[in-house]
């Protein structure tokens, strides 16, 4: 307002305060109204997916939990082999270049399934180890493609209700045993405990990794998800370590300088294309002194070229390109005979000095990307130079099994890590594992073969169970301290993962899942129900879960487990009276109400 002479009145402070107050009150009321609408709609939607039950109690020897149960619905029968982050239903959304559509592409939150993945029609409890190494139930992995297309190579044979695994492969149709015998002649370090960990890229049905288990070598078998072959599913059904994965545009989820050996048996990876990125990734994850084994084209091209639909000149050129690329990234030809060639990653870092030349190819990686960064990290056509220190070299590690309990030098790279901390962790898990076996006698029996430690530190749980007839996949959170190199240095296997996403495996592939305060560490980043549903997806029917958490999270998790048709009981830790509790659960075997498509 203004005076009659045109000058404005001075502002009234009390009037201004009243106006602001009115605005705030109106806005709060409006937001409360909108919130009421949203919440009512949300509750309506939730009742479609989750049935609220009355207050129930879960009886156990240590008392009972008074909680509210959540009942999850069943997924439709055509989701029996659902792999959320490598789902063929979504492949068309991604490019064909370098097979990027086969990499991890997790669905957005609004597409996430909140249902229980059913088993196939006729599913049976898996055949127990060691018998499972040679046979599995057909209805558990009902795929005939390999049987029909690879029948002359003896990958597997269907006999009645079972698949039989004769131990054949593309490069060893007469049996993997003789193939590995020749490999051991070429690499004596495979026989004296020097070589302990290996990775098989393009693993088939994991016969190579299965044979190495009997020789004291622990192998991660790697293959992509596909529509017909189900390579990784066959491997895990047999009780052999395997994960879904492909070398494409992203690094594999393993730290640098970790594996003692890498293997490719006619895996059809174009090693010299795209700047050699695929072979450069093998170089990154292979420790100095480690071995890269190749069988198939172009090895032994002089005698094999006629069967490869090519010319001898083309194969000679391919072999020379491969040899030149390996030499440029500091590999040397270690041994060669018949269809097998072996290269060794040099331990002398003076070789890498040539990469300082601006004209070198491939070039040396700059310091922009950590060598161990391996969760959705793009592949780069450059050489990751290993540290000059002895701590990652194969010949600097104790031989197996001594290396299992020796504190690796890389433990000092971890914040708070030391030899003392490692020894304390090692001793702690011996006590805990002994207690677990009292609570769950199935550990150490034929009932438990495939085990996952969902959030390990140094692999202590796996180390404590090393004498039992099982293997452990050690998982380190991509958001946690990088302790996975220590796991590999002590002769164990593992992978990086983010538990806010689905794991790279098929449903029904693990007999035992172990959780040590995972929910405490990760609940601020994602909803626990999705982690629990993922645990249900990858756990076999009649399989077990050991959930070690604070009392608070045990009370939250228990009703979710009940809603997934698990039977659970709460137990005390090895030192009763602590705030921590242990929930022991078993997943029930149930069948879909639908018929598979």
UniProtKB/TrEMBL annotation:
Family matches, as Gene3D superfamilies: Vaccinia Virus protein VP39 (3.40.50.150)
Keywords carried by this UniProt record: Glycoprotein, Membrane, Methyltransferase, Signal-anchor, Transferase, Transmembrane, Transmembrane helix
Swiss-Prot/TrEMBL GO biological process terms: methylation
Keyword Methyltransferase: yes
GO terms assigned for molecular function: methyltransferase activity
Transmembrane region(s): 20-38
A cellular-component GO term for this protein: cytoplasm
Bilayer topology term: Single-pass type II membrane protein
Enzyme Commission identifier(s): 2.1.1.-
Protein family membership: Belongs to the methyltransferase superfamily.
Protein name: Methyltransferase
Organism per entry: Solanum lycopersicum (Tomato)
Chain's gene name: LOC101251208
